[in-house]
Design brief:
The protein is mainly beta. The chain has 1 helix and 25 strands.
């Protein structure tokens, strides 16, 4: 035992001597951390995502010189791109030849999401005053004939919505904080008379999307950085063992999303100036970066749309107070757009 103790003591002394010698060779300078191209900047790519297939989007249309909070891009049957503006409540229409007009002027809707019914009506999810006056309304293509689908007194904060094949829709209730998950996802029946909770106890649920067959519901949880994959037995019933957290995001923050015809999922990363792409199982397979993100521009990437019949991906963002206004960027997706209820 004494011999073993002596050997351990000798080994400890040798290791300490080698460490002192190495420190002396370095001139007594302690090791230091240093920024490099991968870590510098306001929104560095997390190490686990740096190896993903990556493309950089190109500017396609400058919607405003102001930093407007754009959201909810959706194509109508005529090929027009509809976009909402959150804090002013406006709805814009951009024609295929890039002529911009206003469908709905300034309002107190707090417009945050948008969907198009197959009869042409535009459904707008609104946050209202961001506290207790959220609603969902529908207007004709020209902005007239506003109809309340979910009234402010219902107590929701609708943020995003997606239609299913029957004409009902799911919407996210943008409530809660990371330690008080009181938001959720709800389903509105095709006759718009019944609202059914589907996925409760979420912290600021934001984006919502459906798989091509409508049997899987995807939800992003903004305040906890989570991607939920939900298998559905029917429109309002989760299948046995049907929920999973497919991905934990790093940094700020998963916003709206869209699926393509192959079942891939595109998630806008608000505060990072990029879109992360997942396969049908929730595994990351690619990313689209927005120009200027390394210098802190165009970081408020909120949502995107794929033009029906094509693989053209359009991403909306704004530069807030950075001076570059509100821009729609263009890139190519992995696959063509998912056939939408609006185009049935």
């Amino acid at each position: 035992m004494t011999d073993l103790i002596n050997r351990l003591l000798a080994a400890t002394i040798l290791a300490a001597s080698l460490a002192v010698g190495a420190h002396a060779q370095q001139g007594g300078v302690a090791p230091a951390l240093a920024y490099d191209a991968q870590t510098r900047g306001p929104a560095p790519i997390p190490p686990s995502e740096r190896g993903l297939q990556t493309v950089v989007a190109r500017p396609w249309f400058k919607l405003s010189d102001e930093g407007l909070q754009l959201e909810g891009p959706s194509f109508d049957r005529d090929g027009n791109l509809l976009v909402v503006e959150v804090f002013g409540g406006r709805v814009f229409r951009l024609t295929p030849d890039q002529t911009l007009s206003t469908v709905l002027g300034e309002s107190k809707l707090g417009s945050a999401g948008l969907g198009v019914h197959k009869d042409g009506r535009i459904f707008i999810a609104g946050l209202g005053n961001f506290k207790d006056t959220g609603s969902v309304v529908a207007v004709r293509p020209d902005g007239s004939g506003m109809q309340t689908i979910i009234p402010p007194e219902a107590g929701y904060l609708p943020d995003d919505l997606v239609f299913d094949a029957r004409g009902g829709f799911y919407f996210t209730d943008f409530q809660g904080i990371s330690t008080d998950p009181k938001g959720g996802v709800h389903y509105v029946s095709p006759d718009f008379k019944t609202v059914t909770p589907v996925l409760p106890h979420l912290a600021v649920p934001n984006g919502v999307a459906l798989s091509p067959d409508g049997k899987e519901l995807w939800v992003t949880e903004f305040s906890r950085g989570l991607l939920h994959r939900v298998e559905l037995a029917d429109a309002t019933t989760i299948a046995p063992f049907g929920t999973a957290i497919a991905y934990h995001f790093t940094g700020p923050a998963p916003d709206s999303m869209r699926a393509d015809a192959d079942g891939n999922l595109y998630v806008a990363m608000y505060g990072q100036g990029r879109v992360l792409v997942f396969n049908r199982n929730g595994m990351p397979i690619g990313q689209v970066l927005l120009p200027g993100r390394e210098e802190g521009h165009n970081l408020r990437s909120t949502s995107m749309a794929i033009r029906p019949g094509t693989d053209d991906l359009y991403i909306v963002t704004n530069d807030w107070k950075g001076g570059q206004g509100s821009t729609i960027f263009h890139a190519k997706a992995f696959a063509k757009a998912l056939p939408l209820y609006s185009h049935q």
